Amino acid sequence: MDSDICFMEKGKQKFGLTVDAVIVKDKKVLLIKRRTYPFQGTWVIPGGYVHFDETLEEACAREAKEETGLEVKIKGIIGAYSKSDRDPRGRQVTVAYLCSASGTPRGNEESSELQFFSKKEIGSLEIGFDHSEILECAFSKI
Fold first, then answer.
1. Threshold 0.85, pTM exceeds
2. Within 10 A of 138 (CB to CB), how many other CB atoms are there?
3. Which residues contact 138 (CB under 8 A, 6 or more apart)?
4. For 13-50, what is each residue's pLDDT tens digit?
5. Would you list the domain boundaries of the chain?
6. How far is CA 134 from the centre of its chain?
7. Topology of the domain comprising 7-139
8. Which whole number is the average pLDDT over 113-140?
9. I need a surface site. Which of 12, 14, 65, 111 has the fewest CB within 10 A?
């Protein structure tokens, strides 16, 4: 694990802080299809771990750029999500942000596809993590 990622440890349990960027365009949200564990092959919101030297907002912009190639502008907070079983790798708490973006989406080594989806289209997808819950909250704010 990167030494600059925010983790707390208790015994063998790890506790991580993450951010998610719900990128909206024309009332659709950008999802990535995961190429890696966990939830390989499912659609998820771009996001990842916060580093010790950055704010949550900086982490959101960095993760969005890394995973989608897009420059994001944060519009607001969707919510904080903290169920203990939301990630099989260990305890993760995330803050999800509603974002707009500029540029052309492109994937990286973690994603096999990127696509914008409407709320109706998302209903037929296999969604990883607890991102269905986050997306439901996001669509109520769009």
1. yes
2. 23
3. 22, 24, 29, 78, 96, 98
4. 667 899 999 999 999 999 999 998 999 999 999 999 99
5. 7-139
6. 9
7. Nucleoside Triphosphate Pyrophosphohydrolase (3.90.79)
8. 96
9. 12
Q: CA angle 28-50-39, nearest 5°?
A: 55
Could you give the C-alpha distances from 96 to 13, 47, 73, in angstroms and in order? 23, 9, 13
β-strands 13-25, 91-102 pairing: parallel
Give the C-alpha separation, 2 to 72, whole Å.
Answer: 24
Name the active-site residue from 113, 121, 126, 136: 113
| Contact by Cβ (8 Å): 41, 126 | yes
User: Which residue reads 């096999």 in tokens?
Assistant: 112
- The verdict on whether 136 is a catalytic residue reads no
